[in-house]
Write a structure and sequence with these properties.
The protein is mainly α and 97 residues long. It has one domain. The chain has two helices and no strands. The longest helix is centred in the C-terminal third of the chain and has 37 residues.
Length: 97
């Protein structure tokens, strides 16, 4: 193996890892992604791509947090309606008013 073969293998492994992360971020379904154990640091040539994916991942996390907060507010509203008379009688909540 030549001295350039090892860095080439590491670069390909890092590129595959970034491909997997990009695929996980591009889907509308939630997929758990765990970083693979890779030997060596991220090659400098892939740094920009990795930073873009990190920013995209942060955007997804922020959107999920906002959605969780909204769901929690909805749950609180539903709990408040249910506490007023039970679930035996249908109740409607007008959220457009």
């Amino acid at each position: 193996m030549t001295t350039t073969a090892a860095p080439d293998l590491a670069a390909r492994a890092w590129s595959r890892a970034l491909d997997e992360l990009e695929a996980a971020l591009s889907t509308t379904t939630l997929e758990r992604w765990s970083p693979p154990a890779l030997a060596g640091p991220l090659p400098e040539a892939l740094r920009g791509r990795a930073e873009r994916l990190l920013a995209l991942q942060a955007e997804h996390i922020a959107a999920l947090r906002a959605e969780l907060l909204d769901l929690d507010r909805q749950r609180v509203a539903i709990d408040a309606v249910e506490a007023t008379g039970g679930a035996a009688v249908p109740r409607y909540l007008d959220v457009s008013a």
